Prior knowledge:
4 copies of one chain form a homotetramer.
Chain A: H1 2-27, H2 30-36, H3 41-47, H4 51-66, H5 79-96, H6 98-114, H7 116-137, H8 145-168, H9 174-191
Helix pairs in contact in A: 1-2, 1-4, 1-6, 2-3, 5-6, 5-7, 5-8, 5-9, 6-7, 6-8, 7-8
The structure holds a DNA duplex.
Amino acid sequence: MRVPADERRRALIQAAIEVVAEHGIEGATTRRIAERAGSPLARLHYCFSSKEELIVAIFESLANDQFEAAVHIRPGVGLGRAAASMLRQLAAWIDREPTFARAQVELVFWIARQKDSMASKVYQMAVDVFAERLREGMRDDDDPNLVELFAKMIAAYGDGMVVQGVAFGHKGIREDLLDTTAESFERLAEAHRLVH
Amino acid sequence: MRVPADERRRALIQAAIEVVAEHGIEGATTRRIAERAGSPLARLHYCFSSKEELIVAIFESLANDQFEAAVHIRPGVGLGRAAASMLRQLAAWIDREPTFARAQVELVFWIARQKDSMASKVYQMAVDVFAERLREGMRDDDDPNLVELFAKMIAAYGDGMVVQGVAFGHKGIREDLLDTTAESFERLAEAHRLVH
Amino acid sequence: MRVPADERRRALIQAAIEVVAEHGIEGATTRRIAERAGSPLARLHYCFSSKEELIVAIFESLANDQFEAAVHIRPGVGLGRAAASMLRQLAAWIDREPTFARAQVELVFWIARQKDSMASKVYQMAVDVFAERLREGMRDDDDPNLVELFAKMIAAYGDGMVVQGVAFGHKGIREDLLDTTAESFERLAEAHRLVH
Amino acid sequence: MRVPADERRRALIQAAIEVVAEHGIEGATTRRIAERAGSPLARLHYCFSSKEELIVAIFESLANDQFEAAVHIRPGVGLGRAAASMLRQLAAWIDREPTFARAQVELVFWIARQKDSMASKVYQMAVDVFAERLREGMRDDDDPNLVELFAKMIAAYGDGMVVQGVAFGHKGIREDLLDTTAESFERLAEAHRLVH
DNA sequence: CATGAATGAGGGTTCATTCAT
DNA sequence: AATGAATGAACCCTCATTCAT
């Protein structure tokens, strides 16, 4: 009978993610989370010793399940174009799942306050996913030193887009911004192209 | 006797920023803010009609006082170099005043949830400050259409840096990231240079 | 310069009456009263040592100015018809000035709690006005013992109408109720008619 | 364990009634009510979702428990005598439970300000109880159209008696008033008697 | 094991009142 | 004498959490 217990944890975690996304951390009350999960309030404290523990559990869940599926890169397309494409795909994902994207950014702030070390571990996970994908898109004459850099720039720009999206409602001039940055990625990769 | 009133507003705003940075939005209660400012709770509602108004005032303070003082552009230096320089100065400010910077980003989330329209107004304030400074740095053959774009990119990158800074504790590899982006700004402006 | 001070008291009293009528006693805050009177808040406590004193002053004002003008009786019309007519006029006044009528009833409760004796004095004033008018309408063969009774019945029915009006919004079946009661007044006077 | 919950609701309702009667609506704070009921403040909001709901519950309690128990009509006694008797019983109840009676009238004012529609629903509850009892007392030749009318008159007169009782301290001349009105009820029913 | 019932602590806000000028 | 500035106390309500079963 371990499985039901695990399922209940999972359901609560998923509910917590959704509630944080919709109402922010301050609006993520235990009642709302329990209600969303269709579980009695007391169960939340039966499965997790505190609200804090539940929110930390969100990150473990994110690491295992969520991030990998969103980005695909055509192998050998070149680092600049890979980065440009990835940025667009990230932007598309943010548009597709804005609540989820927002929740993630908010949780970075929250978790840094609770458990400083956890924040960097979690953030790095996302960067690693980006970097791995970028490597798949590299050509022979691309500079490998750019990969980590690009990954972090993409991550940072993603966060920036989320914040601006929150402010401006995800509509409007974002497209220009995207083109421009993508363009600069390609330019940059080109400039750093290795001579053989 | 107007001045003391203003000073008290300022003190409350400063306290609010600090409390948000330390405890997050969820922990930024009116009581804590008042206590930090060394003022009775009722004064907060005497100076600001609501907590929301206080939060909005934070943005005004940031835009009017902080950003304006933090960023200086040499006139006529050229749009690309102006943008590059501005990005660095913004990064320096984020390092110098991580408290302010973090608070600002968190508050964007909060304010968007309270009053959607307010968020864009408030975010635009910062963008406007950046744009104005950029215009001062323009040369004759710079493309004016790039100004708003650059301003928003700088803002977005700033937010991204803040989030990454929260995650990684403001130490480390950020310098490379900065160089790269600054470089891309210059490149971009060059490419869009007008023909006379 | 005594007059301005008196005028200010009067203005505050009038404002208080209006505010109580609109918002009830619980909604009659000092701020609202001062605002309605167009006076600074502090003046209220300069003219009246407390909110309680102001509300007590309302009754003195009512005694002097308000009640007498509302009811007129044709002399010699007979006690039953006079009472019937008076009831209708009272009802009309309640319709015309519902907020004022409500305020008066609410204040009876309030003042009874503050100063028990004052309540009966004030209520009796209204009864006396009714009784006096009724006497003007008497015929020779009317029973004088009925006068005080009718006056109190009218007062009580007036209060009852106010309460029911509050509940049902002053519309509807009240007319029937009125006819019926008026009819019963006439019947009663007839039955008690003196034999000469 | 349902019963204790119900008892606690009842205790809070009873406490609320007493506090309203003692301190008026303005003085009927949740704290005072909870304290009077000997319960922690939070329990009030656990049993009733809001203060408004508690106040509404007072009316239900009055209509269902108090009035029903207070008024008994001998079947077939005739509408006029039934109404007359009911008025006397209501008066007796007001004397017996002045606390309840005063609270009820004050609350009509309060509830009308919170939610206009609720006031009529709540007032009608009491009228319905009266009407039902009156119907039990009807004879074949009584006019059924009088029932609702009588019920409302009784309610209105009851309210009037309460207000006068508040003013005069429940002593004195009320008895005459009662006789007179009761008499008029009987007269009226007689006059409307149906012909078969 | 699981949960309905219960609550102390604290949330944002408004009040009548007083102070300093 | 007159009032803008200021505030302690209290408002209704909701929170995360812990009991009792």
